[in-house]
Amino acid sequence: MITKTQEPLIFEKSVSGRIGCNLPVADTPEVDLSEAVGPVRKEVVWPEIGELDMLRHFTNLSRINYGIEVGFYPLGSCTMKYNPKINERTAGLSGFTNTHPMQPEATAKGFLEVYASCMDILRELTGFDEITMQPVAGAHGEMTCLMIIKAYHESHGEGEKRKYVLCPDSAHGTNPASAARCGYDVKTIPTGADGNTDIAALKAMLNDEVAAFMVTNPSTLGLFEPNISEICRLVHEVGGQVFCDGANMNAMVGTTRPGDHGFDCMHLNLHKTFSTPHGGGGPGCGAIGLKSHLEPFIPGPAIKRGEDGEPYLDRNRPLSVGRVSGFFGQSLMAVRALTYLLAYGKQGMSAISRYSVLNANYVKARLKGVLPAAHDRPCMHECVLTAKEYKKLGVRALDLSKRLIDYGFHPPTNYFPLIVPEAFMIEPTETETKETLDKFCDALIAICEEARSEPDKLHDAPFTAIVGRLDEAAAVKNLDVRWTPASTADVAG
Amino acid sequence: MTRKIAFLAGHPAMTYVPHTEDDVRSMLATIGAMSIDDLFIEIPDDLKLKGELNIPDQMDEHQLLGHLRMLSERNLDLSRVACFLGAGMYDRYIPASIGAVISRGEFLTSYTPYQPEVSQGYLQTIYEFQTGIAELYGCEIANASMYDGPTSLAEAAIMGASLQKSNRIAVSACVHPHYREVIHTYCWALGMEVVEMPERDGATDWNAEIGEVGAVVAQYPNFFGVIEDLKAVREAADPAGAKMVVSADPTACGILPPPGSFGADIVTGEGQPLGIPMGFGGPVLGLFACKREYARFIPGRIVGRAKDAQGRLGYTMTLRTREQDIRREKATSNICTNEALMALASTVYMAAVGKNGIRSVAESSVRNAQYTIDQLEKAGAKRKYPNQKVFCEFVVDLGRPAGPVRDALLDRGVLAGLPLGEVDPRRENELLVAVTEVRTKEQIDSFATAMKEVLAR
Amino acid sequence: MAVPGDLKYTKSHEWVRVDGDVATIGITDHAQSELGDVVFVDLPTPGRMLSAGDSFGTVESVKTVSDLYSPVGGEVTEVNETLGARPEQVNEAPYEGGWLVRVRMADDGELGGLMDANAYESTLEG
Questions:
Q1: Which chain B positions have a beta carbon within 8 Å of C63's beta carbon?
Q2: Cβ separation of B320 and C65 shorter than 8 Å?
Q3: Residue C63 forms contact with B (CB below 8 Å)
Q4: What domains lie within chain C, and their CATH numbers?
């Protein structure tokens, strides 16, 4: 019998006296607990369940969850590419997993080399002078870049004066949020009708109070910013720094380098571009690249190569912004990323950008008749389409997306970027075959036909999922974010 | 005349990119482009890479495994020694079932559950995680995870101060130095002031004068292993007009009264001991729990329960307007991606060890630690702060620099702990020792014997 | 969309009902419909002084947050406390039970800068 059914909560399966693991028990003498630690709590109400039933619980839950290994996952801006299995194997090696971040440095040379090798390759791919991998997620990397920029301005006695960070209206929400976390006020730069930064508007906002301009390139519209070098020059003219949001690095790997565009720093999402798995929303890995003038300010300790090429920990960082996370970063993710980088190597690296751009343009071309692109230009690794003509029929982009679930696909990103009405943002990645893209496009074409012939039907999609659309307003108003014994009774009643 | 289609020169066999020459030809025809190069026409020519990348050659799978194995063997694999090093990362037993669950592609290769209809499996595990962590910490609610212990604590301190509309935070000097550093970094960037509450006899002096602050920050047990008096923290926070923020070791909360029971407003922690390998410090797991009244101010994701039109129960991310993708510069935090997979590992840990297992792990740690204290004292190491109660970690004074002693013990197969001089030069002779449930009496005896030999030299 | 004739309106979709020197303020039927299900309303504490155009709070649906701008200046005398438990009143009765705040106007001349129903309705058509 293989049916997908809802699972009760693990707490609801608990039976007193069961346990799901043969745990080690101390063979040292017993002690009087109160004497040793003082007051002791009565119990921790965690579930009691046998090992087999525990595994079935999670296996059954996995079967009502969609991942890249289940099917096509064209979530724009997220780079849902194949996560090679060899990465999991190397990251699972005991010499990596059983390593403590505070063990003597001389006994962790392998990890320092993993980091240093990764940094060497990322330096070359991005065109920056320095890489640090201490930030543990993309947004964390953005914030670290802004901290470094802040420290840089402070070192020139301009910390007080430079109080603004500029972001385009198409920016990811993490950009303004990260700027706010560094005490900056955010000003928004409009995007022109052609999808590029409105340079006249930028010029009007540039002055010596600007700390930084945060640019996503290619933009969240999936378009390369052709004036990027000019933009960087203009910001530098007033003493500002230019940050590149590297969420879209996949379009550039081996083809063009942000460091050559004029950027001062950028963040990378190793879980996007370099295939460390997304894991349901993390762990990420937010390496950042910087030009040499920002190097003194990176988080310490810094991993450096000595003159003999051997990596070491440089703890003497007087100008550093300080630690941004507990230890060195997402070490096991660095192992996965290095494995991936070496799998492509110098011969294969540009295939990442070339084939991801090919796939995106193919999807854009195939869907042209039903979902036109927001901007009729060659796209990079993702295409932003608009479903605005269906809005008149009462069908929203979200309705089309939800219906895709019935056809076996994960929906793309909707309603982002905010400046495109009824946005439909599709990022196929380089690892998908033409056959998969064709099936996906065929499904969307069929759904757009449904939107014309029976628009009401789409409001109730999906029909085949384990649940339909949930009452999210009720979820906020009647907040239920944890189980209690009483809540089982409530739900049953 | 047929036009020549330009393929990427020398594109090697690469299983991750499945395109055949026929595919490329037909796709380009649909697009109306002559070559893949044509698709990059918007990138100015002078910005395009020319020539070869200066990076290593491509490796096949066999070579990759060999290369990475070689690097891994340049690390000391701590499963080959008796590890008494803790200081925030602990060598605890990881049930085999965890790896089996978190390596399932349905979980491993999914992303943030923006589409609840196809993410019910993950969303339910997060709801279970939130329940388990809230229970462990004695709090009303918990979020779906943060990056790690230090960043979670920094976010909590900032949230606490913001709730009090304050710009000052008081942090105990007995909080892990890396945690304090991260708090300083985050607060410096925001223009917030951090004051330190001094250490006295291995614990925090909660009576120290701190003036008005928005948050008082403690660690439980603290960096030196000492179980702080959380009642005193609450009593220090109230007159200062502050929220009480505690970073708590989750394993210790298997046996100690949880911070929530002392009225802590926000409780955070490092979730690594709950089924996650030390992995040279990452990825690990930030825990974050608090009172329900603060739900709208929490950083990060929260999963809630709701019904669909047919009355079926389901799970979805909720209170989304706090987050950066909606509220942008006014968001409660900039966090987006969190540590979902590590939270899943911890949820499996919670299910595997259960109510009795977490108690057993905590108790075994206490027994082993108490035995180690006795044996090390007999070996000539002097316990620091003997009047204080500890959970599984403690400080000994070796009467000589601890670094070389640690190194000498490592030659004898024992990683003795953290020489505190590495984080505080005034503590050169001190060693921080952690003892978990996986240490055996035999290992502890060998540790003591070796310590005696080294100290006798 | 209902646009009652006896109210004044702003471009940012607030309405004002005037009773002596007290202005009752809410958001329009159009605004609530664009927002979708309102789940939370953040309002100022009475006594706060506002200038015309000040943001005095936010209204939230599941996936949006909108700032509320005061059409007139003056002192907040009362807020609609019932929205704490039942924010959906903003959807159900935007001009009645879903009102947001009452302000004692400092200068009723500011009302002259607001739109009447016809003018507001024509902005919606555009």
A1: 320-321, 326
A2: no
A3: yes
A4: 8-106 (2.40.50.100)
